[in-house]
Amino acid sequence: MSPDINPLDPGAPLDPLPGHSSRGRLERVLRRGEFAVTAELNPPDSANPEDVYERAAIFDGWVDGINAVDASGANCHMSSVGICALLTRMGYSPIMQIACRDKNRIAIQGDVLGASAMGVQNIMCLTGDGVQAGDQPGAKPVFDLDCMSLLETVRIMRDNSKFLSGRKLTTPPQVFLGAAINPFAPPYDFRPYRLAKKIEAGAQFVQSQYCFDVPMFREYMKKVRDLGLHEKCFILVGVGPMASAKTARWIRSNVPGIHIPDSIVTRLEGAQDQKKEGKQLCIDIINEVKEIEGVSGVHVMAYRQEEYVAEIVHESGVLKGRRPWKREATPAETLVAERLDHLREGIEENQQQMAEAAAHHPH
Fold first, then answer.
1. Is 7 contained in some domain?
2. What is the structure's pLDDT at 15?
3. CATH number of the structural domain spanning residue 324
């Protein structure tokens, strides 16, 4: 059996290992030196849990963690806490994003405890987009904390077993802490030093913004290595398929922080099937960045193209034959399902018998 599966319950947390902060699969894969793959789940505008499960099932057997986003772009969707509750119930390994825009430190600390109690092993700390970026700009922003102070807050809860107030925790959260990086936004020279600050605050892994400029990212990683940061933190590069040249131009003009070189737009424009070329472009970028020293994995963001994630991971060959956890029914669940079927059949038989008896004994 895989070392990343609990022998008693495939969906349950793993036994703790020395030096590990969590009992999750993602941390184990990274600390073993294997190339990790995470993906982003597009949150539904729905209260139907099946909408989450259908989207998560696409990633089965291909990723080591699934990001549950927290109202990204300042637009409201199902909450990251709700998505994590559903995913952990089924044994998935969510990465719960927490943005500081909508909650103060009291609410956030409570969410961290609740998430850990549900089985969430990974937490991603974000400042969050301003409310003016979303479709409800009249909302009141909070920003009691930012990504740095949020990292420190969760680290203190985990390592010191106490709230920010100093009050003791009886059981601290066991979580693997992450943050976001953007090597493609100015000031470029400052970006490696900002990563250093996040590591000092508590970040153990980071996921980058979309990478479409590999030479620029390669230069960033050179500075990261010069500072020795690649030995203190696991770096996952953000990648994703681009649907068309038109989409690339729109993103470049309207989404701050995403850098798309002219060469990418030109390549897409010259393709007969731009969507197919966008997928191949993503695979090519993965194959380039995986060779960069200090890169520990990729974070696949396939917005409204989630069906391509398995193909992208498979065709890139980054897993090297390794098979991440896949959702499968446990023996206990199979027995329960069979028992319920028997009960339903029995009820139907009893109801038929009662109906026949009533027909033969009219009042």
1. no
2. 80
3. 3.20.20.220
Residue type, 278: G
Our CA dihedral for 163, 89, 72, 178, rounded to 10 degrees, sits at 50
Rounded CA separation 149/124 (Å): 13
Tell me: do 337 and 316 sit in the same domain. no
Q: Do 217 and 239 have their domain in common?
A: yes
CB of 203 within 8 A of CB of 179?
yes
For tokens 């036994």, what's the residue? 15
Q: Are residues 258 and 335 in the same domain?
A: no
What is the predicted pLDDT for the residue at 199? Answer: 98
Supply the pLDDT for residue 11.
64
Give the number of other CB atoms < 10 A from CB of residue 161. Answer: 13
Give CA 207 to chain center in angstroms: 10
Task: DSSP for 338-356, please give it.
Answer: HHHHHHHHHHHHHHHHHHH
Do residue 249 and residue 358 come from a single domain? no
pTM to 2 decimal places = 0.88
Phi, psi (5° rounding) for residue 96? -85, 120
pLDDT at 16: 79
Percent of the chain with pLDDT over 90: 79
pLDDT of residue 350: 67
- Do 187 and 261 form a contact (C-beta atoms < 8 A)? no
- Residue range 206-224: mean pLDDT, rounded: 98
Tell me phi and psi for residue 18, to 5 degrees. Answer: -55, 135
Tokens of 152: 């420190």
- Domain with 246, as residue range(s), is 25-328
What single-letter DSSP state applies at residue 32? T
259-307-250 Cα angle (round to 5): 30
> What is the spatial distance between Cα 13 and Cα 119, in angstroms, rounded to a whole number?
7
